[in-house]
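re: that chain from earlier
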Amino acid sequence: VVTMNRDRYTALPDDLKAVIDANTGPAWARLAGEVYDDLDVVGRAQAVDAGHRIHRAEGGVANPDWAAAIAPIPEAYVGDLEARGLPGRAVYRRARQLADACR
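^ sequence. v structure.
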């Protein structure tokens, strides 16, 4: 995913907006999704061929076992960013607010 500040986009000349518009949007998202789906098939086959077992978390992140397993990851990442002097906690909090607003 690539994002762009709306004000920056609006400030672009029309010819550059046209280039961006011609190379983004739902059609490109579908194409990218198909590429990643194909790569998942290849990666899964490689893992199985290498003798790895594949475990599926039924219910995805709504599955309590899966949610518990991944729960520490954001805090560890934010802590690492903060230790490097970056505003990880503030950015993560805002990202969560925006995600929650989309539900």
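The chain is about 70% helix and 0% strand.
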